[in-house]
Amino acid sequence: MPRTAAEIVDDLRLFITPSYPDIDIRVQPWDQDQSRLAIYFIDEKFSLLYPYQRWHYLTHLIPSDYQEQHLSTSVWFELAPGETPEDLRYPDEQLVEDITPHVMRILSRTGFFKQLDDIMCPADDELRPSPCWGDFRNSIPLLHKCGITEDELFDVCHVLMLQGGYCDCEILYNIVEENRLKAAYWMARAEGLEPYNPHNGSD
Fold it and tell me: Highest taxon of the source (predicted)?
C-alpha cells in the first residue's frame, strides 16, 4: 500500500535526523506533475554544500529498498534556508567529463593533492591535522592557491565529486592513488586498529 505524504515525512525523519537533527522535510504533490511527489529537504548544513553533495549525503542515509519502493518517482530538492529550487545550480555532466583529464593534470601539476594531504595528515606529528567537515572547506582555498578562479571552481569541484570526492577526505581516499591519509587508514585496518576518522572533531 502506498505511503501517505505524512508517513513518508515520518519515515524520512527516522532515517535522516541522526545526521541532520534540525532538518525540515516537506512532502507534497509536485507542481509540474501532480502524480509525483516533491520532497523538500531544508537544512542549514546545506549552505556550504553543492546540490550534488547534498543529494549524495541524503541518498546514503535512506535505505535503497525504501527509495525504490516509495520514492522512485519522487523529485527531490535539497535546500539551504532561504533557497528555492530555482536557485539550485547543477553541472553539465558532459562538460565535466570532457574537462576531467585537463583538470586532473592541472591539480596534480600544481601540487593540490599533496597540499591537501599535508593539511589532512601532516608529515610532522607535532602538527594537528585539519578535520573534514564533509565539504570542501580545506580544498577551496588550496584550489584558489593553485590558480583555479572563482568562475572555474564550480566545474572543478564537480570533476572531483564525479570521481567520488564529495568532501576533503574523500578526495584523498577515493581519487588519489597514494597519500599519507589513505596509507594511515589501511595501516590501521591491517593492524586491527580503529582508523583515524577525519570527521571526528568537525562541526
Answer: Bacteria
